[in-house]
C-alpha cells in the first residue's frame, strides 16, 4: 500500500485562482504528494509570491502516477466551490479542494457527495456562490449616464464571492448594444457593445463614478418611476417582513433605489394601511364608477374618457 | 394625466394577480445584436416588496376601465376607484427603461375589458408587437389572454408572449354566477384548450427541428414558437365558500387537461368599497400557503388531490399537507431509506425532492446512515418517526398518531386578526 511508504518531505504550493490551483494540484497528485504534506498559499490572502514556484519533492519510489479522471460535473463543483471567499473560521479553499481531489483520485467517489464531510462543504460553497451570482443578477442596478457618444450605464455592486465574471456574461447577453461598466471592491468589468474588458483592481475612476451614482437614488430620474411602481405593486394587506428579508437580505437595500422606501411602507402598513390591499395614495385620488354599458349603449365607451 | 400618476394607479390595480414569474422562457441573448434583453429559463426576482412577494416583471394593467362587474375585483365598473389608461407606447417606454436599469426581467400586461374583448386583446398584442418587432426586445413577456376574444387573436398573442394566462378566479359554476356574472367557465376552458393545442403543436415542432436541423440552421426556417413558457391561471381563495378540496381538484384537472405550467392561488385581499357578501377580513395567507404546498405535492411528488383531502373540507392549517398525509398513513411507515422506492422516500415528511435524489445517489456508493440525513440538512425532527437507516430505527414508531402529531406541531403563529 502506498501509505506504507514514508511520507514525502512537505512542500509548498501557491495559487491565485482555480486554473493555477488545478495545474499545481495535477502535478502534486502525479507526484503522489498526500494532502497533509502540502502547504497551500492563496493569492487572495495577500501573500507575496515567496512561494510562487512549486518545489516538488522527488517522486517517491513505488508510487506510479495514474491517469486522473474527473468528470465535468466534478470539475464544475470544484471550480465553483473555489469561488467562495472563505472568511476567518472557514477552512481555506486550496487544501480542501486538494484533499477532495486526492480522495477522489484514490477511488473514494463519496468525497464529492453532499453527505460527505468534505463534499458537504464543497456543495454548501457552490450553493452560496450560485446564490450570490443570482443576487448580483437580481439586485444590481444600472444608472444612466448621457455622454457625447450616447448613453452608458454604470453600476456598483459588492458581491460576497468571486462572481463578477458570471455576472458580466449575464449582462452582456442582457444589455445588447448598450455600453456599461460594473465596479466592485475586487475588480471591474466594462462592455463596449462587443467585448468584455476586465480590470483588477477596479480603476479608481470607475469606482468613483459607480459609487456616486449608487449612493444618490435620484441621480437617474427614471428611478422615480421605479419607486412609484414599487409602492403601488406592494400589497399592504399582506405585509410580511420575515419573508421579504429572507429573500432580499438587508445588505443589498443600501444600493437599491427603492431600499429606503421599505421601512416607510412597513410602518404605514402597520398603522392602518393593512386594512386594504390598495395603496393609500391611490385611494385618495378621485374615483369613478362606470355606467353599465348594457343599459347605456349610446354613451361613449368608458375608455374614451381615460 | 402624467405618466407617473397612471403608473401609480395601474400598478395598484394589477397587484391582485399573484403571478410575477419570469421563468420557462427559451434561451435568448442580445449579445452583439441590436435590441435588448435575454432570457435563460430561470426567473429573476429583482426586488421584494414588504409583503414578501417577488418583483420580477413590470406588472400593470393597460387600463382599469372595465365593462365587467366582477364583485371581487377592485376594477369592476361599479367600483369608485380612480381610472387611467396607458397608451401602448407608454407601456413600452416603461418596460424598456426599467429593464435597462435591471429592475425587471420583462412585462406582465393585463387589462380591464374596454369596448369589446377583441379590441382589448388587440391592444395587449399591440404592446407586445411593439416591444418584439420595433424594439427587438428579448426579455420576458406575459400577456393576459381574454377568454372571450377571437381565437385568431390568441393565436397572435402566443407568437409574441412567453406566457399566456386566462384566470379562472372562481373554480365553481355557482361562484362565477354569483360573483362574476359576465364570465363563463366554458369560455375560459375553451380558451385554455385552444392555447394548449397551439403550445403542444409548437413544442412538437420545436422538438422535431432540434432533432433534424443543424444548429446553424436559419432560425427563420424553424417553427415559430407559441408561448414557450406555457400557460398559467389563478384562483382566488377565500372570496366565497369554495373549499380547498374543490380548489385542488380543479387545479389537478387544469394541470391534466390543459397542461398548465402553474396554477396560482391568491388569498382574497380586502378591496375598497367591498360589495356585500365579500369578506372584510385579512387575506387568508396561511391557507394560501398550504394550497401552494399541496399544489407542489401534486405537481412534483405524485400525490393526488383526493389523497391530500379525502373528504370535502380544507387543508390542515397547523401542519403541512405532507406531514398530515404521513400521519394518516402510519402503516406505510417507517420507510427504509436503503431499500425503498424513490417515490416512497419522496413521501417522507422532512425529505425534499433534492434530498431524495441525493440519497438514491449515495446508496449506490454505500449504505445510508442517520448522519447522512444531518449532512443533507433534512428536517430531522419531522422525519425521525418515519425513517429507518442502517444505524437507526424510530423509537416512537409505536406512539399513536395524535400524540405524534402533538409533538410535531410547532406552535404556529396564528393567522392574526388585523382589526
Ligand atoms: S373583467 Fe372582471 S376581473 Fe377583469 S378587470 Fe374587469 S371586473 Fe376586474
Automatic annotation (TrEMBL), chain A:
Pfam families: DUF4130 (PF13566). It comes from the Bacteria. Residues 93-258 form the DUF4130 domain. Residues 271-306 are annotated as: Disordered. Residues 295-306 have a biased composition (Polar residues). InterPro entries: DNA_repair_put, DUF4130. This is DUF4130 domain-containing protein. It comes from Salinicola corii.
UniProtKB/TrEMBL annotation, chain B:
The keyword RNA-binding does not apply. Residues 202-232, 397-419 are annotated as: Disordered. Keywords: Iron, Iron-sulfur, Metal-binding, S-adenosyl-L-methionine. Its cofactor is [4Fe-4S] cluster. GO terms for molecular function: catalytic activity; iron-sulfur cluster binding; metal ion binding. Gene3D superfamilies: Aldolase class I. Residues 404-413 have a biased composition (Polar residues). This is Putative DNA modification/repair radical SAM protein. It comes from Salinicola corii.
Amino acid at each position: 500500500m502506498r501509505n506504507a511508504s514514508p511520507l514525502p518531505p512537505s512542500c509548498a504550493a501557491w495559487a491565485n485562482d482555480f486554473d493555477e490551483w488545478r495545474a499545481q494540484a495535477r502535478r502534486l497528485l502525479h507526484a503522489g504528494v498526500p494532502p497533509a504534506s502540502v502547504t497551500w498559499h492563496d493569492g487572495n490572502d495577500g501573500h507575496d509570491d515567496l512561494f510562487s514556484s512549486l518545489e516538488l519533492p522527488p517522486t517517491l519510489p513505488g508510487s506510479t502516477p495514474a491517469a486522473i479522471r474527473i468528470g465535468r460535473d466534478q470539475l464544475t463543483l470544484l471550480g465553483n466551490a473555489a469561488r467562495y471567499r472563505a472568511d476567518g473560521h472557514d477552512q481555506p479553499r486550496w487544501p480542501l479542494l486538494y484533499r477532495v481531489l486526492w480522495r477522489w483520485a484514490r477511488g473514494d467517489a463519496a468525497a464529492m457527495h453532499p453527505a460527505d464531510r468534505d463534499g458537504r462543504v464543497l456543495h454548501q460553497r457552490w450553493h452560496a456562490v450560485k446564490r450570490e451570482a443570482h443576487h448580483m443578477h437580481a439586485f444590481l442596478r444600472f444608472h444612466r449616464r448621457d455622454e457625447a457618444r450616447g448613453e452608458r450605464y454604470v453600476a456598483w455592486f459588492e458581491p460576497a464571492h468571486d462572481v463578477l465574471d458570471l455576472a458580466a456574461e449575464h449582462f452582456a447577453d442582457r444589455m445588447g448594444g448598450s455600453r456599461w461598466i460594473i465596479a466592485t471592491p475586487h475588480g471591474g468589468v466594462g462592455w463596449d457593445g462587443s467585448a468584455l474588458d476586465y480590470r483588477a483592481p477596479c480603476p479608481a475612476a470607475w469606482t468613483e463614478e459607480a459609487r456616486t451614482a449608487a449612493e444618490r437614488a435620484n441621480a437617474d430620474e427614471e428611478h422615480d418611476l421605479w419607486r412609484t411602481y414599487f409602492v403601488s405593486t406592494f400589497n399592504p394587506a399582506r405585509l410580511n417582513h420575515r419573508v421579504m428579508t429572507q429573500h432580499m437580505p438587508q445588505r443589498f437595500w443600501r444600493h437599491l433605489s427603492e431600499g429606503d422606501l421599505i421601512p416607510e411602507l412597513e410602518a404605514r402598513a402597520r398603522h392602518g394601511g393593512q386594512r386594504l390591499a390598495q395603496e393609500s395614495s391611490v385611494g385618495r385620488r378621485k374615483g369613478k364608477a362606470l355606467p353599465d354599458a348594457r343599459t347605456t349603449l349610446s354613451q361613449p365607451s368608458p375608455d374614451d374618457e381615460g | 394625466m402624467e405618466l407617473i400618476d397612471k403608473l401609480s394607479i395601474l400598478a395598484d390595480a394589477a397587484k391582485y394577480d399573484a403571478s410575477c414569474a419570469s421563468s420557462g422562457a427559451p434561451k435568448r441573448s442580445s449579445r452583439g445584436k441590436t435590441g435588448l434583453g435575454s432570457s435563460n429559463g430561470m426567473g429573476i426576482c429583482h426586488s421584494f416588496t414588504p409583503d414578501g412577494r417577488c418583483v420580477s416583471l413590470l406588472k400593470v394593467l393597460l387600463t382599469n376601465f372595465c365593462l365587467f362587474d366582477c364583485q371581487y375585483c377592485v376594477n369592476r365598473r361599479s367600483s369608485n376607484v380612480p381610472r387611467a389608461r396607458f397608451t401602448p407606447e407608454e407601456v413600452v417606454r416603461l418596460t424598456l427603461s426599467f429593464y435597462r436599469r435591471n429592475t425587471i426581467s420583462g412585462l406582465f400586461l393585463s387589462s380591464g375589458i374596454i369596448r369589446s374583448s377583441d379590441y382589448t386583446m388587440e391592444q395587449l398584442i399591440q404592446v407586445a408587437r411593439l416591444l418584439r418587432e420595433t424594439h427587438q426586445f428579448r426579455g420576458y413577456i406575459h400577456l393576459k389572454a381574454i377568454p372571450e376574444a377571437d381565437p385568431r387573436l390568441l393565436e397572435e398573442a402566443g407568437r409574441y408572449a412567453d406566457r399566456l394566462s386566462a384566470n379562472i378566479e372562481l373554480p365553481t359554476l355557482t361562484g362565477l354566477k354569483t360573483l362574476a356574472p359576465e364570465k363563463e367557465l366554458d369560455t375560459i376552458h375553451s380558451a385554455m384548450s385552444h392555447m394548449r393545442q397551439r403550445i403542444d403543436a409548437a413544442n412538437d415542432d420545436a422538438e422535431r427541428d432540434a432533432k433534424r436541423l443543424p444548429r446553424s440552421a436559419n432560425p427563420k426556417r424553424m417553427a415559430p414558437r407559441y408561448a414557450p413558457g406555457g400557460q398559467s391561471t389563478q384562483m382566488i381563495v377565500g372570496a366565497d365558500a369554495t373549499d380547498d378540496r374543490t380548489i385542488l381538484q380543479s387545479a389537478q384537472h387544469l394541470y391534466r387537461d390543459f397542461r398548465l405550467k402553474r396554477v396560482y392561488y391568491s388569498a382574497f385581499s380586502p378591496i375598497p368599497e367591498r360589495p356585500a357578501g365579500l369578506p372584510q377580513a385579512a387575506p387568508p395567507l396561511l391557507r394560501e400557503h398550504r394550497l401552494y404546498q399541496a399544489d407542489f405535492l401534486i405537481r412534483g411528488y405524485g400525490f393526488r388531490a383526493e389523497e391530500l383531502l379525502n373528504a370535502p373540507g380544507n387543508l390542515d392549517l397547523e401542519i403541512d399537507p405532507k406531514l398530515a398525509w404521513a400521519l394518516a398513513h402510519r402503516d406505510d411507515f417507517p420507510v427504509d431509506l436503503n431499500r425503498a422506492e424513490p417515490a416512497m422516500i419522496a413521501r417522507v415528511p422532512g425529505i425534499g425532492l433534492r434530498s431524495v435524489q441525493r440519497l438514491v445517489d449515495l446508496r449506490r456508493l454505500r449504505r445510508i446512515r442517520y448522519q447522512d440525513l444531518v449532512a443533507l440538512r433534512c428536517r430531522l425532527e419531522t422525519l425521525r418517526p418515519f425513517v429507518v437507516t442502517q444505524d437507526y430505527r424510530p423509537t416512537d414508531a409505536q406512539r399513536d398518531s395524535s400524540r405524534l402529531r402533538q409533538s410535531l406541531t410547532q406552535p404556529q403563529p396564528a393567522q392574526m386578526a388585523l382589526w
